[in-house]
Amino acid sequence: MSGRTIWKRNPAAPLRAFLRTESGSAGVLVAAIVAALLWANIDPGSYEALWRTQLSLRLGHLELSRDLHTWINSGLMTLFFLVVGLETRREFDLGDLRDRRRFVLPAVAGVIGMLIPVLIFLVINHGGPGAHGWGVAMSTDTALALGLLALLGRGVPDRVRIFLLTVFVVDDVIALVVIALVYSDDIKTTPIVVAVAAFAVMLAVRAAGVRRGAAYVPAAIVMWGALLVSGVDPVVAGLAIGLAAFAYSPGRAELEQVSGLFRSFREQPTPKLARTASIGLANTLSPNDRLQRIYHPWSSYVIVPLFGLANAGIGIDGPFLAQAFASPVTWGVLLGYVVGKPLAVIGTSAGLTWISQGRIRPAVGWAGVLGSGTIAGVSFTVSLLIASLAFTGDQLAEAKVGVLSAAIVSSALTWAAFRLTNRLPRDRRTRALFGDMTELTDLVPDVDEKRDHVRGPADASVTLVQYGDFQCPYCGKAEPAVRELLGHADLRFVWRHLPLPDVHPQARLAAEAAEAAAAQGKFWQMHDLLLDHQDKLNLTDLIRYAGDLGLDQERFHDDLKRHAHAGRIESDIDSADDSGVSGTPTFFINGRRHYGAYDVTTLTAAVRMARARARLGRDAPATREEARSVDPTARR
């Protein structure tokens, strides 16, 4: 089955699509790096000549001329940092970092994860000619690290990858500040003022409620151009714009309005109504999501690999390698990443957990922390960008050797860490990867046995909640998977109504019919009948189903006529709104929203994972704060 929830790409799941894109692009980037190394060693003349090719933009007497290498590093990489800013903002608005307390450990680990490698680099290069290039040793390439983690740590859950991303969500931000303040030369004040004014114009346009992307383009171009001539690396513009782009989930009211626009177009298919419907549909998505959809694939599959092709090429032979591995620049970069990054991540996680007595702790287990620390030694994009600003000649080549060597060694250490973890018994392996961090709950309100319609044992370790619409064909596709899951003894299933009358005109009446049957003790029998006969949900059909189930048809009909159970339906709709649900079917597993496919295989895997987490939760010792929340008299 290929059925998927309608909002599977909803930004309320801020990291899933990001992780898939970065994992897939890792191979493309690695191929680009290998191609650059081969090209630079087979025909170094043509490699250097291509990137020194001049490209000019001219408008009247105004001309902007830079070589191809600069257009890539300062031009296209602006879009890369735009994506970084968008992802950071989306994590704060919709991801786990919406609980600001969860940002404490990642923020501290991210900062220390930059300071320790820099200190290692400075100790090794103290007083030497390469000491000013300390910025090369500080920034993890999160995109490449995530991709390699997917390749090296097969079976590693998304939770570990999410932890890695949140730990280094500040990494690129700080690196950009360092580039702007330390590695920018001959800074001119007037262009910076122009860039700030252009950014202020963009913020004003956003505050005015303008959603058309074209309205922002002129100010963005002015901002980028002003920074380019100011001496500050213009990639800062991309980061600032990304951080300013709000992320939010589409609202049910907005979606219903769009349905009305499409009905108008269906009744009168004119170009004007087609344009209105298209714009209305696009406007239901947040600016963050729209920009992500446009630029993220280009950034991952084109811009970053092109950057790798333009920057990774170095001539390698025996004498050069001997020189490079005798250089403090190479060793400063290599040890900064291979030793400094894991030390920072593991040390910070352990230290904050101990100091806070468990109130602040990693969202993963010790194996997840270890693997995140080792893979954080993978650097490339920002490191090479800073290296090209800080070094020239042999020192630049030595820095590149250090960066590439660190990526290789860090990848090997990560593979070894997860290989050892996979040899552990199942329960210990699960705890090592997941830890005992309490997850954020997306479902509002929680399941109430007295109010909700529940199938399965009350003490089940896994609760599967579905918001559904009896006329929704996707709910019909999901039903066989749900029924197969109900064969699990340790699962309870909850149905909550979310009729979508703008697209399914009989859904509301069908929901009231299910509640009328519930009033006579036959909810689940009616639920099954309605999903089995989604094409026959008019009033006559519903009364016939009541008769088939042995219900009092007169009472049933009277309940429908008086809309006796409309309040119950509205209550479920309100809970859907509070939980950020706007489409059907939408599933929650132990309070966490499930994204992606709802076929038997995918749902079974998600339920199995939730059961493992629930088992950890039962076995995990409570922190002092958690114990007191259950029993005020509890002591450590």
Automatic annotation (TrEMBL):
Location in the cell reads: Cell inner membrane; Cell membrane
Transmembrane stretches, by residue range? 21-42, 68-86, 107-125, 163-183, 189-209, 221-248, 334-355, 367-391, 403-421
Region described as Disordered? 616-636
Pfam name, any one:
Thioredoxin_4
A single GO BP: regulation of pH
**InterPro entries for the chain:** Na/H_antiporter_dom_sf, NhaA, Thioredoxin-like_fold, Thioredoxin-like_sf, Thioredoxin_domain
Main location (coarse class): membrane
Q: Where is the Thioredoxin domain?
A: 432-612
SUPFAM superfamilies, alphabetically? Thioredoxin-like
Q: Check the record and name the PROSITE patterns matching this protein.
A: THIOREDOXIN_2 (PS51352)
This molecule's function is given as: Na(+)/H(+) antiporter that extrudes sodium in exchange for external protons.
Q: Which family does it belong to?
A: In the N-terminal section; belongs to the NhaA Na(+)/H(+) (TC 2.A.33) antiporter family.
User: Can you say what this protein is called?
Assistant: Na(+)/H(+) antiporter NhaA
Instruction: List the source organism.
Output: Micromonospora terminaliae
